[in-house]
Amino acid sequence: MKRICFTFSVVILCCVSLLTFAASAKTIHLLMEAVPDTFYIQDLLPEFEKETGIKVEFEIVNYAQMHGKLLPQLLSPKGVYDAIVVDNYWAGEFPAAGWLERLEPYVEKTPGIKLEDYLPSMLDMVGYYEGKLYMIPFYNYTMILIYRNDLLTQAGAVIPDTVEEYVDLCSRMTQDIDGDGEVDIYGTSMMGLKPDPICMEWSNYLFSSGGDYYDENWHAIINSPEAVKATRLYAKNMHLNAPMGAPGFGFDEAINVMAQGKAFSLVTFWMFFTTLNDPSESQVAGKVLFQAMPGGVNLNGGWGWAIPKSSPDKEAAWKFISWVESPKIAIKRALQGGAPTRRDAFQAPEVVEKFAYYPLIMKGLEKAKHVPEFLYSTQMIEIVGRELSLTVEGKDAQKALDEVAGELNKLTKKANLY
């Protein structure tokens, strides 16, 4: 009888323990873009679950779906996403709308997260908004100029210092090698698809020519002489030195032309340098190098971690963010080919041994510049992309940018920025 009672007691205790564990176990949900860094983190999630007992579930979608999926959850009193990632296009919109938690209190209680470890350009872009911390930088996608060093050497040329000279070099490198009247090597592969690809690519021309979208008082200067010149050079390069289909190319199509050995140069995201040097994916592996855009100012881009005010479990969300952004995990991500935002991940000896060019990427990030961030950044990109596309089709650059400036001023006025 005693043995039966003892056995029954043990069973009861085990059941209570299992119920207690089940009650304490948590699952948090995040919406993530289908990019390499997301999958690198996904592979590491068992470590987080083992350390914390918190299970993490990623809902992975492509970029075009993300904004539309996030908005209803951000507007809801209680959403389904415990933490989110915020593209720099939305890094003004989301905090300005009051949808994100301030993160200073979380950082202050977490010794492992030191903001000084992050590159200032990343914190400025996907960290702070109007001097307040709403995001922790997640990954970067700054743009660079990738070029065929073998073709450059054969031509006895060098990468020039200005955008105008770069366009001239592209004209020189556009070649009919076999004399059949058809171009075999284009001076550049470009992406004219609107609104994002064309706007992002063109911004490198704009910034490196001394132009900008707005001045410090949020008045549009996108129709300045520098901006008009940059736009004319961009359209010239598209027409004279890029494949015929380039006005409709997105990121993938532009990369494919380069990977097939049909272009001398390409302005694109730095992580594609690895792709173009992979013999299994590229015919130009070992022949390409990269540097900053001639003129010296590349477009910066990136994502930041954030906690929505509608988050069901803010503390668990922060526990995940502080884990994924710890030096240990940041370095593991970098070793897989991830895109760091922290200096220690860029400079870790084991990372540099595997990817010798990472310190050069970090140096480029220090000077990179992002598009203006405010409540209507998404609409701004749509307007600019629309008029750039029309300019490529033949619309006068000055007229197009004058119209853009008028519309951009309406956006900042609507946002009460002046």
Automatic annotation (TrEMBL):
Keyword Signal: yes
Family annotation (InterPro entries): Bact_solute-bd_prot1, SBP
Keywords for the protein's UniProt record, in alphabetical order: Signal
Keyword Signal: yes
CDD domains: PBP2_TMBP_like
Signal peptide residues on this chain, from the entry's feature table: 1-25
Name of the protein in question: Sugar ABC transporter substrate-binding protein
Pfam families in UniProt: SBP_bac_1 (PF01547)
Native organism: Aerophobetes bacterium
Domain of life the protein comes from: Bacteria
